[in-house]
Design brief:
The protein starts with 11 loop residues before the first strand and ends with a helix. The radius of gyration is 17 Å and the shape is globular. Helix content is 53%, strand content 12%. The chain has helices at residues 23-36, 57-67, 75-99, 110-120, 125-136, 151-160, 174-191, 206-221; strands at 12-16, 47-51, 103-107, 143-148, 197-201. The protein has one domain: Rossmann fold.
Length: 222
Amino acid sequence: MSGPQGKARGRFVVLDGIDGCGKSTQAARLAEALRRGKPGAAPGAETLHLREPGSTKLGEALRGLVLERGGDLSPAVEALLFATARRQMLDEVVEPALARGAHVVVERFHPSTFAYQGFAGGLGEDAVVELLERFAGAPRPDRVILLEIEPEVAARRLASARDRRGDRIEDKGLEFQRRVAEGFRRYARRFEATLHVAVVDASLPEAEVHERVLAEVLRAVR
């Protein structure tokens, strides 16, 4: 696939999973590995590490609205705000980066909306899929990595993290996170083949998780 003047497009990778699965750590390690270059990846490739919602002025403002404690937003409102932030990020940052040959690594994307609002929040899986396909359907990720871990283990990680403030959605508690985890499993089963979804065991040591994530991503980067 080529961009302007025949330049190869970059690759778009998503890391997703429940709170405490290690997305930020693994996204940072993956982005750095792609910048350095690994066997099968172009050395020195520009790589952006983004978070979602966020990574644009609008996205960061909406992130505050959705995650700030004290807000009372329905799953439908949350989904609409996430879709808005995502569309802005795709238009403003992701598509231009891919077109100039840069790779993009994003923490959270469609799987989160499916799992948190569609399944755990009761909005409905099909309603969320239709919303995201219509308003944030392109560009599509070349690889989606779901970091799978037991909610109890993830909760202990969050509790032991230093200087962690948490947010409104994390405050919904362990039972909600269990439903979210099932939502991610349902997403993986539904879209494994069509949307290039892979599941990685995030309970393994950090370095091993990174190697497995990188192996999955290099299949798309080559």
